[in-house]
């Protein structure tokens, strides 16, 4: 897989008429140094993981949607792109759900506001499909399970957990000390609307 988010698409066959349907979301793209650091940490800490980070990003929101109007996406994306150039802090690395390794961002007021803006597309959540976090068989708290039911994503509102995914393994991941501190400053290079793939990866960048 490529080491950066390069796959681009105009979306589904005719989103202007039908709206977007499938697994979509908004993600923050970090600067090049942070991408490299993320990939190196994944190889160092989880050399045998089923998946290691190849397109590092911070997910603002993702879910399986239906009939999401392109105009709504454009409106939200224009707001989100205004945060490009800001700096975010990273620190603790830990295991989520028994299967994911996260490098966690420190959640600040601006990041929470950006997440809330991205969450607007949850109004188009397809509640007739199984969401990815359920398919992945993660160990989730009652609050996270309720978020999946309502929004299609476990990390919503007070439970929002911004992070860069380092690795995933269906058989489980562990850290020797339970968690590790790796302080780092990342810059927001861009914010994109994307089609999501397995393990929370980016399958395509949608030009809209």
What does this protein look like?
The chain is an alpha+beta fold and 208 residues long. The chain has a single domain (8-206), classed as Cyclic Phosphodiesterase, Chain: A (Alpha-Beta Complex), CATH 3.90.1140.10. The chain is 25% helix and 34% strand. The chain has 6 helices and 9 strands. It has helices at residues 15-18, 32-45, 70-80, 109-118, 132-135, 142-151, and strands spanning 8-9, 20-30, 51-52, 58-68, 87-96, 100-105, 163-168, 179-196, 202-206. Strands 1, 2, 3, 4, 5, 6, 7, 8 and 9 form a 9-stranded mixed β-sheet that branches. Strand 8 (179-196) and strand 9 form a beta hairpin. The protein is globular, with a radius of gyration of 16 Å. The model is unreliable at 1-12 (pLDDT under 50).
Topology:
Layout: E1 8-9, H1 15-18, E2 20-30, H2 32-45, E3 51-52, E4 58-68, H3 70-80, E5 87-96, E6 100-105, H4 109-118, H5 132-135, H6 142-151, E7 163-168, E8 179-196, E9 202-206
Parallel strand pairs: 1-9
Antiparallel strand pairs: 2-4, 2-8, 3-7, 5-6, 5-8, 6-7, 8-9
Q: Figure out the total of helices.
A: 6
First and last CA, distance: 24 Å
Please give the largest β-sheet: 9 strands, mixed
Gross geometry: globular
User: Which stretches of 5+ consecutive residues score pLDDT under 50?
Assistant: 1-12
Question: Which CATH architecture is right?
Answer: Alpha-Beta Complex
> Under CATH, the topology is which?
Cyclic Phosphodiesterase, Chain: A
- Structural category: alpha+beta
The fraction of residues assigned to DSSP E strands is 25-35%
């Amino acid at each position: 897989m490529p080491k950066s988010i390069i796959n681009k698409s105009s979306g589904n066959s005719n989103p202007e008429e039908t709206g977007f349907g499938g697994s979509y979301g908004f993600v923050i793209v970090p600067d090049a140094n942070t991408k490299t650091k993320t990939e190196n940490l994944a190889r160092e800490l989880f050399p045998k993981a089923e998946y290691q980070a190849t397109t590092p990003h911070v997910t603002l929101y993702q879910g399986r949607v239906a009939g999401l109007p392109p105009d709504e996406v454009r409106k939200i994306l224009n707001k989100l792109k205004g945060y490009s150039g800001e700096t975010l802090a990273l620190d603790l690395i830990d295991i989520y759900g028994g299967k994911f390794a996260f490098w966690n961002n420190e959640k600040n007021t601006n990041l929470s506001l950006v997440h809330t803006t991205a969450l607007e597309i949850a109004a188009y959540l397809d509640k007739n499909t199984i969401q990815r976090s359920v398919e992945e068989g993660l160990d989730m708290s009652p609050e996270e399970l309720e978020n999946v039911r309502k929004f299609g994503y476990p990390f919503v509102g007070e439970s929002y957990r911004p992070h860069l995914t380092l690795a995933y393994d269906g058989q489980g991941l562990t850290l020797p000390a339970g968690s590790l501190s790796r302080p780092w400053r990342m810059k927001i290079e861009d914010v994109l609307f994307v089609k999501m793939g397995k393990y929370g990866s980016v399958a395509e960048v949608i030009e809209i």
